[in-house]
Amino acid sequence: MAGAPQIAARVLQLRAELDQHNYHYYALDRPVISDAEYDRLFRELQTLEGQHPELVTPDSPTQRVGAEPLAEFAQVTHRAPMLSLNNAFTDDEIVAFDKRVREGLDAEAVDYAAEPKFDGLAVSLVYADGRLVTAATRGDGYTGEDVTGNLRTLRAIPLRLRGARPPAALEVRGEVLMLRADFERLNQRQREMGAREFVNPRNAAAGSLRQLDPRITATRRLAFYAYSTGGPLGGGLRKHSEVLERLAELGFPVTEERAVVTGVAGMLDYYATIGAGRSKLRFDIDGVVYKVNDLAAQNTLGFVSRAPRFSIAHKFAAEEAMTVVEGINVQVGRTGALTPVARLKPVFVGGVTVTNATLHNEDEVRRKDVRIGDTVVVRRAGDVIPEVARVVIEQRPPDTREFVLPARCPVCDSEVVRSADEAIARCSAGLFCPAQRKQALLHFASRRAMDIEGLGDKLVEQLVDSRIVHTPADLYRLGVIKLSALERMAEKSASNIVAAIEKSKRTTLARFIYALGIRNVGESTAQDLARSFGNIEHIASAKVEALQQVQDVGPVVAQSIAEFFAEPHNREVVAQLLAAGVSFEETAAREIDTASPAYGKTFVLTGALPRLTRDEAAQKIRDHGGKVSGSVSKKTDFVVAGEDAGSKLLKARELGVAILDEAALLKLLEP
Ligand code: IVH
Question: What is the pLDDT of residues 436-481, one digit of tens each?
Fold first, then answer.
């Protein structure tokens, strides 16, 4: 048997080797051994450490996973704020940026460090005496969440800095992301387990990072690229490009795609090159970033509000790709609206494989003249729904036919009607149409309505098709026995669903009203109605005039509400739901402060806010008498923009609408 000193030496050697392989794999993108070989070394180290616990140190590769699951993330205040970047979309904006920089520096030509703009999540890594001590998310830029336990599991992040003389204190900033290949593997695994797939690598990375249990993060293989430091790195470095090189020496992955360029021409050249090679990168990017390369010059330029003057993000336009329309399906929505949807030959665009694209409505199909067999340009920007941008008319095959919307509902064969003032054609059958019934049930069960977990597409489909469920009230009569009789339904899942349905009985009046799916009554209106009337009977029996007294309820909405409750079938369903035990928490009749600057104002939320979820922000706005709308128009009073805000922010700028960040919103609401 080997003696203790030999074992200690072997342990050190294995650690060094494993660190080296991580570095090769993640930082250099040049693995020198296979995954299996890596695992073998790892297991050897694990075994030795198991036999000699006194040899275990916190920075051993075996100690990456080990933190206990958390109840919630702790808050971390960043030593220096993590700012955001201003965005540019056009060449002119880059010309203007360079002009501002040159004027600010009184310089003829400026060198810029150019890098890809990683489409992941910004994090901060704090090292003390060469060891990783704290890792945090960006949060609102001032405080983030402590995700040390999670980020320790990333093999791309050194637990210990490389090299002989690491700085005593160092904060590294960079982006956590999921490589495309790892994303594909993850989704493959999700499919095999029957779990939900992730939409794109960014969402997958976010979901994997924000896990309270680090063991889950550990299974996800996240990558990391460093792009700056939290404070000066010292060591006489004078350029940003030198900082990146130093970070690479210290063991951090730094992208190879970086460059130092001069002036506008250099920046635009870089943008074009990266743009052309984008699809070949191992990860998703949404643009490039330029930073004045000289650190002293960066200092001179400083910051405006929350973004540096020395840097700008040059974003890519929405991605487009060509494919063929294989068919045009007509979908029937909750209110009977018929939506033509193009079935496409699968095409990879904007980071996802697209197989469908909405054609919105009949007029839209006519305007674009999309036909089956056509080659079309599909466009997708960020997280938005893909759409058909245009037809490539030169490639239209002979004998295509103009698309006509069917005169009868494709699902229930009832008549399709289209009123003169509407762009939308509808199936006239209401809830007698199974498609509408399914959608109505899905809406009823949705998260912001009755929030019945587990009642998704497939199950609703089965329940309606097997004629077990006709109305929402029928859900409350389902038992485990009825449910388990369905195909592919295990008893365990059946009882979970029954429990979820039971749980949904305790709700709020606002959610209930919203859940009913009354035409033109969204969440906001449902809350106003709940607040003004206080109970469902009052709303059901209210006259149009009384309904119109409610904030933002105009004649059209009032009419929809009155019509809904005039229908005996609807009153019956409501009565059955109440009889089944649906009950409401007292929504403490909150006095709305009419003096609030938000009162009566229209807000649009866009991008990811650092602290509040969208729902929370919307709720706060409504609590102060404000309204939340989905699109920016001249009537919008405020646009609340978070990270990666897109076209809505542009529109707001164009229209001169006031733009708030989260902090400004909170200040407005709670001065
Ligand atoms: S530097 C002072 N470099 O973009 C700002 N940021 O809009 C320092 N990002 O939250 C940021 N790639 O998550 C920088 N090469 C890059 C980047 C990058 C992506 C993200 C980062 C930040 C956001 C700012």
Answer: 999 999 999 998 899 999 999 999 999 999 999 999 999 999 988 8
What is the amino acid identity at position 442? Answer: L
Quick: pLDDT tens for 69-103. 888 889 999 988 998 999 998 999 999 999 999 99
Atom of ligand 1 minimally distant from the CA of 120: 13
What's the token pair of residue 606?
Answer: 């866009």
Which residues contact residue 170 at a Cβ distance below 8 angstroms, ignoring those fewer than 6 apart?
Answer: 126, 127, 161, 229, 233, 250
Q: What CATH number should be reported for the domain holding residue 626?
A: 3.40.50.10190
Is residue 669 lining ligand 1, measured as CB closer than 6 Å? Answer: no
- Which residue range forms the structural domain that includes residue 502? 420-591
Does the beta carbon of 436 sit less than 6 angstroms from any atom of ligand 1?
A: no
pLDDT at 507: 94
> Which residues are identified as catalytic?
117
Longest dimension (CA), the chain: 92
| Cα dist from 182 to 62, 283, 601, whole Å | 21, 10, 45
Residue 531 lies in a domain: yes
Cβ–ligand 1 contact at 117 (below 6 Å): yes
Q: Which atom of ligand 1 is nearest to the CA of 138?
A: 10
- pLDDT computed for residue 183 by the predictor: 92
Q: What is the pTM of this model?
A: 0.57
Residue 353 sits in the same domain as residue 299: no
User: Residues 476-516: pLDDT tens digits?
Assistant: 999 888 888 888 888 888 999 999 999 999 999 999 999 99
Query: Is residue 410 assigned to a domain?
Result: no
- Say whether pLDDT at 635 is over 60: yes
Distance 95 CA to ligand 1 centre (A): 20
Over the chain, what is the mean pLDDT?
A: 90
The answer to whether residue 406 is domain-embedded is: no
Q: Which atom of ligand 1 is nearest to the CA of 175?
A: 13
Determine, yes or no, domain membership for 464.
yes
How many residues belong to the chain? 671
Q: Which atom of ligand 1 is nearest to the CA of 116?
A: 15
Out of 84, 256, 293, give the residue to mutate to test ligand 1, the one with the largest number of ligand atoms within 8 Å of its CB: 84
Average of per-residue pLDDT across 329-348:
91
Please tell me if the CB atom of residue 540 comes closer than 6 angstroms to any atom of ligand 1: no
The angle subtended at Cα 153 by Cα 150 and Cα 157, nearest 5°, is: 105
Q: Which CATH number characterizes residue 287's domain?
A: 3.30.470.30
Q: Is the CB of 84 under 6 A from ligand 1?
A: yes
Interval between CA 287 and ligand 1 midpoint (Å): 10
138 lines ligand 1 (CB under 6 A): yes
Closest among 74, 75, 49, 52 to 60, alpha carbons compared: 49
Do 119 and 265 reside in the same domain of the chain? yes
For residue 398, give every residue at least 6 positions away whose Cβ sits within 8 Å of its Cβ, in sequence order, or none: none
